[in-house]
Amino acid sequence: MTVETKLALSATEVNSFSESNNEPAWFASLRAAAIAKAAELPMPTPDKTNITKWNFTEFPQHTVESAPFNSLEDLSAEVKEIIDIEGQENLYIQRNNTPAFLKISEDLKAQGVIFTDILTAVREHGELVQKYFMTDAVKVDEHKLTAYHAALVNGGVFVYVPQNVVVEKPLQVVFLNDNPDASLFNHVLVVADRNSDVTYVETYVSTVEEAKGQANLIEEVIVLDNAKVTFGAVDVLAKGFTTYVNRRGSIKRDGKIDWALGLMNDSDTISENITHLIGDGSLANTKTVVVGRGEQKQNFTTEVRHWGKNSEGYILKHGVMKDAAQTIFNGIGKIEHGATKSNAQQESRVLMLSEQARGDANPMLLIDEDDVMAGHAASVGRVDPLQLYYLMSRGISKAEAERLVIHGFLAPVVQNLPIESVKNQLTKVIEGKVR
Amino acid sequence: MSTLVIKDLHVSIEDKEILKGLNLTINTNEVHAIMGPNGTGKSTLASAIMGHPKYEVTQGTIEIDGENVLEMEVDERAKAGLFLAMQYPSEISGVTNADFIRSAINARREEGDEISLMKFIRELDKTMDFLEMDQDMAQRYLNEGFSGGEKKRNEILQLMMIKPKFAILDEIDSGLDIDALKVVAKGINEMRGEGFGCIAITHYQRLLNYITPDHVHVMMQGRVVKSGGPELAQRLEAEGYDWIKKELGIEDTDAVTEEA
């Protein structure tokens, strides 16, 4: 049975939003088809978390107007910290739903690299965007939230790296949320063409105490033959959002993605990170760290699906749970028939800091091929008293010893973030959360 | 000079009494060896002094210069000058050896008076060279993936960096090859002198060939049953423990299993 959900925007409103952006016909009709589907399609069903009572559709306003930043000096201290103001050559800042700042080096422009907000890209690079926008990694009609997203996209980024181009300096994106009425339907599309190499690092940061809107984020990373993408993300969205974040990779022959995801939202969150290893010899390295606190409910699914032969997928997830936070960690290594000599490995560990917190690690290996390697490890436990004893026996206080153990536990992602200022920010966020 | 005084110490683990009235006094500038057969409570003594969470002191006192050690948390004991080189050091992922040692040093200093990074690195490099450790051990995660010998050297590295008043070495020689043993002994001998006292717990005389003790104590059935000079260790090596049992009329009872 399909339950009709009341959607916050009508088809007419979606269409007029599209018109106000001067969007090309193909994108307007994609939105129109999507809003129709959103009404009918069922909700996604994240394993072991019941979301039937979550509100993923209503919000105060679809788009809010925010002032752009003329200079980085106008940024608040919180945002400045994330950015190396002098050194960062390639930077995009989105303020709520407004493209607020963009800088890209002349060198990259000359090499044909595209780095711009998604709605500009739809207008100016229509052919490229149309080819990859929800056609390969994520499909519009997967479920209600993908369709809703496609209909309501109001922000995001497009990155295209042409064949053989190696982008030496990272591309940095900051999604700033400083209006409590804002909803984020951000679409990030990163396309690394053959033999290219790029590092992309994004930060979602809320400076509002409590948000009222939706965060429905879909991010697609398309890695063509022999290309490499390093993708770092730190999510720090405020309490009050209902967050659906879908980060999906599609990797062709000999391509590679390194994911480093620091998922630090204070909102209830459904996070899905699936990488399809399509091509032979493709590789995904997925590292995720999470801190849950308060009454937060979260579900994190990390999946690597092997289609190509000799493909390799590594999943590492570490979560710290405190207060009465509830979190499900689903880790899935799936090897399809024909993906011979593939290797699927995963490790999920949850550290519980309070009696009321709940954390479940569910490792799954789904294997349809004989000639493969696969393994998993999972644990849920408390801070080891013998570790604390050892650290304290050197004069370190109990609080500091716990801090060291927790930071160490979350280090796999912190150490892998390719921008120093973002790394420091994540450390600080962790510090604030686990205190 | 500092003094560590242990009087009538009774210690239980999970309601089983292991130490049954142990007495021991050591001063800085002294090295004491504690020997004895397996299961007589040697490691329990080390753990009880440091405050291991599983060991319960049911009777007796431990004092350092008159201060009651048993009332102190583990970190306070360390700051009072105690150091335990553990038999099985914990592995702590994500925390580099260098960061850990620096935190330990700074824990002893006032806020605002932390050791400068340059000075710390200089000292760490020098000490690692002295202990013939690879420089990359500083940036590796604490004890993670270290071999048995590397862990023991790392304990001595911490000892030399932290410079406690009293070090307790809990079977520092177990599982070490002769070269590693010599390096570990070199570290201890470097520390010897005014302001440093040491309790070396061992099964084997071998360690004492490299670290000459001032005093040797024999533990049996949860007590110190005999004390003497270095010659006592040599006699034990040559003749074993039976002559002591005979001399003191000790009957073999169920040996308690020693916990790590």
Number of helices of chain A: 10
What is the H/E order of chain A? HHHEEHEHHHEEEEEEEEEEEEEEEEHHH
Write out the strand line-up for the largest beta sheet of chain B, numbering strands in chain order.
6-9-10-3-11-12
Tell me the CATH topology of the domain at 3-93 and 165-248 in chain B: Rossmann fold
Instruction: Please give the number of β-strands of chain B.
Output: 12
Sum up the overall morphology of chain A in one term.
globular
Our estimate of the beta-strand percent of chain A is 35-45%
User: What is the CATH architecture annotation of the domain at 3-93 and 165-248 in chain B?
Assistant: 3-Layer(aba) Sandwich
Helix content of chain A: 10-25%
Which CATH C-level class of the domain at 3-93 and 165-248 in chain B is it?
A: Alpha Beta
| E-strand count of chain A | 19
- Number of structural units classed as domains of chain A: 2
- Overall geometry of chain B: globular
What's the assembly state of these chains? Answer: heterodimer
Helix-strand category of chain B? alpha/beta
Task: Return Rg of chain B in Å.
Answer: 18 Å
Keyphrases for this structure?
heterodimer, A: 435 residues, alpha/beta, 2 domains, ten-stranded mixed β-sheet, 38% strand, B: 260 residues, Rossmann fold, six-stranded mixed β-sheet, 8 helices, 12 strands
Quick structural gist:
The complex is a heterodimer of chains A (435) and B (260). Chain A is α/β, with parallel strands linked by helices. Chain A is 23% helix and 38% strand.
